[in-house]
Amino acid sequence: MKLLNKKNLLLLTLFISFHSIASNHDPFEDFNRTIWAFNEFLDNNIAKPTAEIYTSITPQFIEHGVTNFFRNLNELDNAANQLLQGRPILALNDFSRFIVNSTIGIAGFIDVGSNIGLERHDEDFGQTLGYWGVSTGPFLMLPILGPSTPRDLAGQSVSSVLGGTFAIEETEARLALTALDALETRARYLDVETLIIGDRYSFIRDSYMQYQEFETSNGEDLVDDFVEDMDDFLLDE
């Protein structure tokens, strides 16, 4: 039986702990729900069935390797944003992870960095904008791309330049990697979606907005003994 990865269960914990004011950030709810319905149609008929086939036929160690590969591609983005947020030691940690995992870890398929004590982080330019005091803005549901905010959109435009796939010149190879990245991401969320309660749109919106705030503050605003107690339990498998 697969366990929820740390990010997914943390998102759920945040929703349960802080479910309250996120709806105030959704002035375009009617339009967002229309886009949500369109995305749900695509997901139910294309993305989810494909992800289920992927997880059913792919050996678990290959799934882990693919996940590690794409996480490794983001390490340069992580390192750059650590610097922009005034954390050079963490930037060095993330850059070192990229070097170690790209070489000894066979292009990132093996997370050697974590095994030698280099902690993995998730940073992007949207978080950096939040660190600089830029507000998230209203909740947006984008076609195909899913939940976002104006700040997150601006951040993604910068982080995409620092992402590993951007540097691939061959269009077909870049598109293939992007598609595989999307498939791997959808497969990881197969577990957490079974825990969605109530109105799916509201759940996703509130969870997303609260998780953005958590990421911006690097967890400093969250005091939750449950998360701390689960550190040894949460696995990416």
General description of the model:
With 237 residues, the chain is mostly helical. It is 63% helix and 3% strand. It is built from eleven helices and two strands; from the N terminus they run αααααααββαααα. The protein has helices spanning 6-18, 29-57, 60-73, 75-84, 88-103, 112-115, 125-131, 150-162, 171-192, 200-216, 225-229; strands at residues 140-142, 146-148. It has a two-stranded antiparallel ribbon. Strand 1 (140-142) and strand 2 (146-148) form a beta hairpin. The chain is globular, with a radius of gyration of 18 Å. The protein starts with 5 loop residues before the first helix and ends in an 8-residue tail after the last helix.
What topology emerges from the helices and strands here?
Layout: H1 6-18, H2 29-57, H3 60-73, H4 75-84, H5 88-103, H6 112-115, H7 125-131, E1 140-142, E2 146-148, H8 150-162, H9 171-192, H10 200-216, H11 225-229
Antiparallel strand pairs: 1-2
Number of strands: 2
Calculate the terminal CA-CA distance, rounded to whole Å: 9 Å
The strands making up the biggest β-sheet line up spatially as 1-2
Report strand %.
under 5%
Structural class by secondary-structure content:
mainly alpha
Radius of gyration: 18 Å
Query: What does the overall shape look like?
Result: globular
Q: What's the overall average pLDDT, rounded?
A: 82
Unreliable residue stretches = 1-9, 14-21, 223-237
Major sheet attributes: 2 strands, antiparallel
Helix percentage range: 55-70%
Number of helical stretches of at least 4 residues: 11
User: What's the SSE pattern?
Assistant: HHHHHHHEEHHHH
